[in-house]
C-alpha cells in the first residue's frame, strides 16, 4: 500500500527539507508539528491519532511536558492544534487524542468547539505481575486521592453546523434531497424506510444526524435521487460516512485493557502499545487511508498503520526520536524484505 502520490508530493514539496524520510507508506517529518500542520491540505486526513504532551505529568524526559507554567497556557496551545485538526480532517474522519485524566475534562470541552465528542475512553493498563510501575512500589498509606492508574483517550468527529447532532452526512443528505425536490416522507416511501411515528421515518433521523444509513440503504437513496433526474451523482458511501468497524470479538466498550509497553533500552517514556494503536486504526479507518500522528515519539503509530495497510504521516520535533523512528522503520523494512525472499 502506497501513499496517494499527489498528496504526498504536495506535502513533501511544501515542507521541503523537513520531509525527513519517506518509505513507501510512511512519511516522517522533523519539526514543530503546529507549523507543519499548516502545510497539510484541507480535508485530507482520515484519522488523527496522537498523544500530545500531558503537561500535568511534568516529565522532563518528554518533549514539551514542562513547557507550560499554567494550565490555561497549555490549553491555549492545544486549542491551536484543534483548529488545524478541524481544517485538515475529512468530513467522515475521526480523532483520537490521548490525555491525562486530570486534564481530560477541560480538553474535552475545548475539543467540543470544533468536534462532536463520541466517547471518553478509559485505558486501565492491567499490567502483568512484576510490572506495574509505581503502583506496586509506592506507599499506599501516603495517598491523599485515588491512585491515577488510567489514561484517557477522547474520540471525536468533525462538527458540522446545520443539523441537530452536527453530522456532516446529515447536511449532504438534506441538500441532495432538496435538489431532488423530494420531501422526507416521499424519500422514505421510495426507499422503504418508514417510521412508526414520524412520517419522514429514518430519513428524518438521518437528516438530524441522530444515526446513519447502512450501505444498502444509502444505495437506495442514491438510486432514488438519480431517478428524479435532478441529481446527477452522489459521493461514495465510504467517502461521507464515518468509519466505525467493531464486533463482539474485540473490545467494544469505553473501558480498554491494554498492557503498557515494558521497559527496554531506548524505550520512549510515553510509548503506546502497538496492539492498542492497531485497535483504533482498524476500527476508525479503511485500508489506504492516511493516519496522522502530530507527536510521533517512537513511531509506533506508523508501524501499526503500516501493518494494517494504512498510510501515515509522523511528525516529531525531537531529533533523537526522529532518528529512532527512522531506525525502527528501516529495520522493519529490512526484515520484511528478508521474509519476502524466503
| Total beta strands | 9
What shape does the CA trace take?
A: globular
Number of helices: 13
Could you list the spans in which at least 5 consecutive residues all have pLDDT below 50? 337-342
For the largest beta-sheet, the strand count, sense and barrel status come to: 9 strands, mixed
Structural class: alpha/beta
Here the CATH topology of the largest domain equals Rossmann fold
> In whole angstroms, how far apart are the ends?
21 Å
Mean pLDDT: 86
CATH architecture of the largest domain: 3-Layer(aba) Sandwich
The figure for the number of domains is 2
Summarize the structure.
With 342 residues, this protein is α/β, with parallel strands linked by helices.
Give a structural overview:
With 342 residues, the chain is α/β, with parallel strands linked by helices. It contains 13 helices and nine strands. Strands 1-2-9-8-3-4-6-5-7 form a nine-stranded mixed β-sheet, sandwiched between helices. Helix 3 packs parallel to helix 4. 35% of the residues are buried.
Question: Any key phrases for this structure?
Answer:
alpha/beta; 342 residues; single chain; Rossmann fold; nine-stranded mixed sheet; 434 Repressor (Amino-terminal Domain); 2 domains
Walk me through the topology:
Blueprint: H1 5-15, E1 19-23, E2 26-30, H2 33-37, E3 45-50, H3 71-88, E4 89-99, H4 104-111, E5 115-123, H5 134-137, E6 151-158, H6 168-179, H7 184-191, H8 201-208, H9 215-228, H10 237-240, E7 255-256, H11 274-284, E8 290-293, H12 300-307, E9 311-316, H13 319-341
Parallel strand pairs: 2-9, 3-4, 3-8, 5-7, 8-9
Antiparallel strand pairs: 1-2, 4-6, 5-6
Helix pairs in contact: 3-4, 7-8, 11-12
Amino acid at each position: 500500500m502506497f501513499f496517494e502520490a499527489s498528496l504526498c508530493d504536495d506535502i513533501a514539496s511544501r515542507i521541503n527539507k523537513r520531509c525527513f524520510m519517506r518509505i513507501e507508506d510512511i512519511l516522517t517529518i522533523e519539526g514543530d508539528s503546529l507549523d507543519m500542520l499548516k502545510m497539510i491540505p484541507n480535508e485530507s486526513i482520515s484519522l488523527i491519532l496522537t498523544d500530545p504532551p500531558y503537561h500535568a505529568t511534568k516529565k522532563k524526559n518528554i518533549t514539551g511536558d514542562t513547557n507550560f507554567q499554567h494550565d490555561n497556557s497549555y490549553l491555549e496551545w492545544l486549542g491551536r492544534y484543534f483548529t488545524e485538526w478541524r481544517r485538515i480532517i475529512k468530513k467522515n474522519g475521526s480523532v483520537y487524542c490521548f490525555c491525562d485524566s486530570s486534564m481530560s475534562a477541560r480538553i474535552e470541552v475545548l475539543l467540543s468547539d470544533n468536534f462532536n465528542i463520541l466517547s471518553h475512553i478509559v485505558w486501565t493498563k492491567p499490567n502483568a505481575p512484576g510490572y506495574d510501575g509505581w503502583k506496586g512500589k509506592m506507599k499506599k498509606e501516603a495517598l491523599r486521592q485515588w491512585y491515577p492508574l488510567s489514561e484517557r483517550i477522547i474520540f471525536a468527529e468533525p462538527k458540522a453546523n446545520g443539523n441537530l447532532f452536527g453530522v456532516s452526512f446529515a447536511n449532504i443528505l438534506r441538500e441532495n434531497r432538496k435538489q431532488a425536490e423530494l420531501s422526507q416522507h416521499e424519500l422514505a416511501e421510495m426507499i422503504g424506510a418508514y417510521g412508526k411515528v414520524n412520517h419522514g421515518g429514518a430519513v428524518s433521523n438521518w437528516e438530524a444526524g441522530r444515526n446513519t444509513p447502512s450501505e444498502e440503504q444509502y444505495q437506495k437513496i442514491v438510486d432514488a435521487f438519480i431517478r428524479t433526474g435532478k441529481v446527477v451523482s452522489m459521493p461514495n458511501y465510504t467517502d461521507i460516512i464515518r468509519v466505525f468497524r467493531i464486533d463482539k470479538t474485540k473490545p467494544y466498550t469505553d473501558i480498554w485493557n491494554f498492557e503498557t509497553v515494558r521497559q527496554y533500552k531506548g524505550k520512549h517514556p510515553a510509548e503506546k502499545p502497538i496492539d492498542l494503536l492497531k485497535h483504533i486504526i482498524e476500527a476508525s479507518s479503511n485500508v489506504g487511508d492516511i493516519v496522522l500522528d502530530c507527536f510521533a515519539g517512537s513511531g509506533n503509530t506508523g508501524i501499526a498503520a503500516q501493518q494494517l495497510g494504512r498510510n501515515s504521516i509522523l511528525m516529531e520535533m525531537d531529533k533523537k526520536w526522529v532518528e529512532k523512528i527512522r531506525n525502527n522503520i528501516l529495520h522493519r523494512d529490512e526484515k520484511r524484505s528478508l521474509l519476502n525472499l524466503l
